[in-house]
Amino acid sequence: MGDERAFRAEQDVGRINSFFPILPTLGNRWAARRPWEGRTVGLNLHLTTLTAGLVRELTLGGGQWIVSAANPGTTDPAAVDFIRNLGVEVYTGGDMENRHLQVLEHRPDLLVDNGFALSGTLLDHRAQAASSVAASIEMTRNGIAGLRQRGEIPFPVVNIHDGRLKEAVENRHGVGEGIWQAVAQLTGMHLAGRRVVVVGYGPVGRGLAAYARAAGTSVEVVEIDPVRRLSAHYDGYPTPSLDAALRQAAVVVTATGRSDVLTLEHLQQARRDMVLVNAGHGGNEIDVSGIERASVRVDHIADQVVRYRLENGQRVTLLGHGHPLNIVLNAGSPEPVLLHFAVLGLTLEWLATGPDLPSGEVLVGRDIEDRAALLALEALDPTGA
To answer: Who is most buried in 29, 74, 286, 316, counting CB within 10 A?
Structure first.
């Protein structure tokens, strides 16, 4: 069973690489240079097919690699099998052990993190080992927020989330397109003519709104930040309060990076049935546990599609159990994600050279992003025509 799943994942990776070969190009480079020879690298990532493709190319560059699941709700068993077949240790938390502590038992000297979970676990539970970490990379906005709340930490953390490419390409186009493909795939709904509410108007929210409008939906934006709310207004979207927006919404998607943005109390005041989707980091933007406690009936309509009837008679349909839906389904164009992975890999290669960096947050270099962008352009047009 595991070998069959791994083979399917490998086929998916091959199909994706045949149309956008940015990672194989880097893999060939790393195989020749072996930049991580003698290093131990701990990775905390969403375990999807795309991640499996990344890990395969990284391992060509030597070193020991250990992987933990950033979120069990976004973990694809086929991807786990694929990665394990590469000879890489993978910890998913399925054995009830702390998966991040299990990675740290290998004493990695380079870290790649998603949500500051691996680095935070190190500082909280293995502080004596922090001096052996040369550097870390953080991939998410939530992780950077967690880093800044910590104050001083004893090693550099390269912030690749706030670089130019993450916001401009993956957040806006990757998530913006992928969420609506996932919604259509799970529900069979045709989006045109439906009323959509986007909660949050950061880079992800802007992409969600733009792609929803392109699909023919009527889009409203809920945003508490006055500058972003004004930006949404001038982009042509009504900007009601959340309570007002929920009275007419058919589909609500959260994209704030904050917990409990959409609570049971909000939903109980709404006036119609609706579909709930999360596009933000983690699985706590929607109060899933509150919805479950208040439900008088639960219907499992399909895989990743659950409908709850609340005490007031209202029905809410939750997709992906509140986890980031594009990641749960591996939906949308893989190109923006693979571009972000290219930035990650190039940053890791640079860190392996031992640059003299200060402790704390370090923004990813423009030269690294320029190289990743040039590789992407070459992959998109390999003939140069």
So the answer is: 286
pLDDT band at 385 (very low <50, low <70, confident <90, very high): very low
**What are the residue boundaries of the structural domains of the chain, listed by start?**
2-162+333-380, 172-322
H helix runs in the chain, sequence order: 2-19, 22-33, 49-59, 77-85, 99-104, 117-125, 141-150, 164-165, 176-187, 203-214, 226-234, 242-246, 264-268, 288-294, 325-328, 335-351, 366-380
What are 302's strand-pairing partners? 305
Whether residue 219 is predicted with pLDDT greater than 90 in this model: the reply is yes
Residue of higher predicted confidence among 1 and 36: 36
Which has the higher per-residue pLDDT, 303 or 3?
Answer: 303
Domain 2-162+333-380 part of CATH 1.20.1270.10: no
**Residue 312's pLDDT band (boundaries 50, 70, 90)?**
confident
Region 172-322: CATH code:
3.40.50.720
| Cα–Cα distance, 356 to 352 (Å, whole number) | 11
CA–CA separation, 53 and 113 (whole Å): 17
Within 10 A of 2 (CB to CB), how many other CB atoms are there?
A: 13
pLDDT digits (tens, 9 = 90+) for 133-168: 999 999 998 899 999 999 899 999 999 999 999 888
Average pLDDT over residues 213-237: 97
Predicted local confidence at residue 330, as pLDDT: 83
Upper half-sphere CA count for residue 268 (Cβ side, 13 Å): 13
CB 128 within 8 A of CB 107: no
- The three-state secondary structure class of 3 is helix
Taking alpha carbons only, the member of 289, 281, 253 closest to residue 46 is: 281
- Within 10 angstroms of residue 12's Cβ, the number of other Cβ atoms is 21
Strand partners, 295: 310
Q: For residue 218, what are the contacts with CB-CB under 8 A and spacing of at least 6?
A: 193, 194, 195, 196
Residue 7, amino acid: F
